Every structure is written in structure tokens, then in C-alpha cells.
Amino acid sequence: MKSFHRRRKFFKVGVAPEVSEKKIAGKNNAKAQLMSNVATDHDGRPPLSSEQRVYNVILKQAALVDKPPKSRSLPSDLALDSIPVTTKNLLNEAYDRCGEVCAEYAKTFYLGTLLMTPERRKAIWAIYVWCRRTDELVDGPNASQITPTALNRWEQRLERAFEGQPYDMLDAALAETVLKFPVDIQPFRDMINGMRMDLFKSRYFNFDELYLYCYYVAGTVGLMSVPIMGIDPGSKASTESVYNAALALGIANQLTNILRDVGEDASRGRIYLPQDELEQFGLSDDDIFAGVVTDKWRAFMKDQIKRARIFFKQAEMGVLELDKDSRWPVWASLLLYEQILDSIEANDYDNFTKRAYVGKWKKLITVPVAYVRAVVPPSVTRLAATG
Ligand SMILES: CC(C)=CCC/C(C)=C/CC/C(C)=C/CC/C(C)=C/[C@@H]1[C@@H](COP(=O)(O)OP(=O)(O)O)[C@]1(C)CC/C=C(\C)CC/C=C(\C)CCC=C(C)C
């Protein structure tokens, strides 16, 4: 997955050894499986754009909110109130471990989760840990050995967790979470699809292709999180529009991440930028590999930053609709990530040799700003926003 492979500390809970298989085989199968997931229109209609396909996932996810919780329709041996005390203790331990991981790897976000109800916070930690472990498959110590087969096994484990048959403690926390909250499996499967995509794809022809990738690796996080964070009971917004905003935040974060890491990705032979847009600005892969900031590059970057900011703006509207206790961590992550774009600008668009970051003081100021935005009632914020 696109991110900062070498810099990141490795996640200590790891994944079961059997998913880290050495054989580099079946790459073509993975590609075929991925393509069948994303391009299934065989009836002569024009293929859907990535945005339309992803919107279909949103509609399905939003519809789940109105359905009764899965736990109520499960066989009695899987019902939550029939879980024996020893299992409950193990589950509590599992959630505690998820919380520790979250605190270690995403401190600000962890602090924000402490404002949520205990049920929600535990669930969001469980999801965070599943995402982190999934990311670690391609970013962790065994990343060079990851194969399509290993990803298939990871997906089977996911399916089992959703069926109430977790493989390990951390999966058990996820299994209970998805029983309690209206979470659909598709975004989880799609995050694994993002890993598959990274195994065989290092160029993106246009924004439609890049959009799908960003959805897979980051938009999915937004869709997984909203059912846990909850929508404000007083919100007048449609469920789909809130999910859409969550998706937008994931896309905005990932686009920012991509723009920050152009140089680093190029050093690994990867260019996560729309090839047709590079061409429109008179740029090619060679310019990226040369890594020289020219006027053409500045103009191209301005355009890309503008697009990322549009996604951040779209996301902002949705934060106002979230349950009030969930807004703070979302505002904090939104404001902090968006400032990376300012930092790219401050570096005069040199993302080849400089890494844009948000300094300690700016971070310290952002956290209370996020808090104020989270507690100010939505109508006041909206009025303030429109002057
Ligand atoms: C509030 C909040 C941030 C909640 C998300 C909780 C959660 C489940 C996070 C999982 C994150 C994770 C481990 C994802 C794996 C894939 C990945 C690495 C994605 C990249 C993130 C950056 O992480 P990284 O550590 O690599 O980067 P840094 O070096 O620290 O810069 C991504 C770029 C994307 C992550 C995507 C989100 C955080 C989406 C958040 C969207 C919501 C929570 C929805 C909010 C709802 C509305 C209505 C706006």
C-alpha cells in the first residue's frame, strides 16, 4: 500500500505467519480477481466510473443503518448475551490491546477516542487495529514476501471474523464489533483489494484509476468508521451524504499522502499521479525521476493540491453531522492532514527532496481548535461558515 514503508515503526502484534507466504505465485490470479471485483459490467452497458462504483458501496452501507443489528438475527450460540464470562474477559483484554496499539501509533486520535462512549471507542480501536494489520502486510517487516495467496488468506480470515469465528484475539475484537454495529464487510474487502492493486500496479492512467485506489486504501476507513462513530440524532442530512463525506475525507487524506511522498515513491519506482494530467502539464515519468522543481511542476502541483482541498471541504460538511462525541478526533485528523498541503506549498512544491510535515506547535494549536469545532453546535458552525 502507498505509504512510508521504511520510516514506519513496525506493528508489534503482527499477523499470523501463514499469511506471510514466501512463494511469489498467482500474481495474475490476483489481478484477475481484482478486476472481476471492480469491472463486472458484462451486459453491454458502458462501464461505471470508479466514483459510481464506490457510490454503490455507500448506498449498501447506508441501507444497513436502518436494519436491525446483526447480533439479533444470529444463531443463539453467537448472540452477544450468550457469551460466557471467560470469553468476555478475553474480549476485554483484546480491546485493551487494540487501545494500546492505537495509543502507540496514533496518539492524538487515541486521545480523541477517549471522548467517545466506551462501546464506540473499543469498536473504533478494533477497526483501527485491523486496518493497521492489513497495512502492515504490505508495509511491515514481511512486506517483501507478501503474495496474492497471503492476501487471499487474510481475506478468508476476515470473512470468518464476520461470521463470528475469529482466528485470534484481535480478530475477536473485530468480530464482536461487527456484530454490534451496522458495519458492512465490503469496505474491509476493498482495503485488501487496495493491497492487491499495489502488488501489480505502479502507474495510474487517469484520476478515475487513482480515485479507485484511494478509495480502496483510505476511503474504506471512512466507511468503516461512520457506523461506529454514529450520526447525530438531530442531523437532517441523509445517511448517504454522511458516508460520502467520510469517503471524501479518506480520499483527501490519501491524495495528500501521495503528494507529500512523490519523491519517496519515485525512488521505489512508483508514481501515484494521473499520467494524463502529467502529460497535460508537459510532464512525464522522467521528470518525476529527475526530481527537479520547475514551473511546470509547480503548476501541476497547484492543480493537484486544489483537488485534494475540494475533497477536504466535502468532508467538513459531514463532520458536522457526526455524533457530537465523535467529532473531535475527526476534526483533528482532518485539520492536521490538510495542513500537510500548506507545508508542501511552503516548501515551494519540492516534494522530491523535502518531506512536508506539520510542526509540533501547529499540532498543539490544532488540537484545541478541533475541540472547539467539535463542541460548537452544528447550526452555529454552519452559520459561522456562511458568514
Ligand atoms: C478519526 C479517525 C482518523 C478515524 C479513523 C480510525 C481508523 C479506523 C483508522 C485506520 C487508519 C489506518 C491504519 C489505515 C490503514 C491504511 C492507511 C495507512 C491509510 C492512510 C492513512 C495515513 O496513515 P499513515 O500512518 O500511513 O500516515 P502518517 O505517516 O501518519 O501521515 C491514510 C492516508 C488514510 C486514513 C484514512 C482516514 C483516517 C479516513 C478517516 C475518515 C473518517 C474517520 C470518516 C469521518 C467521517 C466524516 C463524516 C467526515
In short:
The chain is mainly alpha-helical and 387 residues long. It is 65% helix and 0% strand. The protein binds the ligand CC(C)=CCC/C(C)=C/CC/C(C)=C/CC/C(C)=C/[C@@H]1[C@@H](COP(=O)(O)OP(=O)(O)O)[C@]1(C)CC/C=C(\C)CC/C=C(\C)CCC=C(C)C.
Topology, number of strands: 0
Q: Architecture of the largest domain, CATH level 2?
A: Orthogonal Bundle
Distance separating the two termini: 41 Å
Compressed to H and E, one letter per element, the order equals: HHHHHHHHHHHHHHHHH
Determine the CATH topology of the largest domain: Farnesyl Diphosphate Synthase
Determine the CATH superfamily of the largest domain.
Answer: Farnesyl Diphosphate Synthase
Structural key phrases:
387 residues, binds ligand LST6JFWI, Farnesyl Diphosphate Synthase, 2 domains, 65% helix, mainly alpha, 17 helices
Task: Please describe what this structure looks like.
By secondary structure, the chain is an all-alpha fold. The chain folds into 2 domains: 221 residues, Farnesyl Diphosphate Synthase; 111 residues, Farnesyl Diphosphate Synthase (Orthogonal Bundle), CATH 1.10.600.10. The protein is built from 17 helices and no strands. It is globular. Bound molecules: the ligand CC(C)=CCC/C(C)=C/CC/C(C)=C/CC/C(C)=C/[C@@H]1[C@@H](COP(=O)(O)OP(=O)(O)O)[C@]1(C)CC/C=C(\C)CC/C=C(\C)CCC=C(C)C. The site of ligand LST6JFWI has 31 residues, from helix 5, helix 9, helix 10, helix 14 and helix 15.
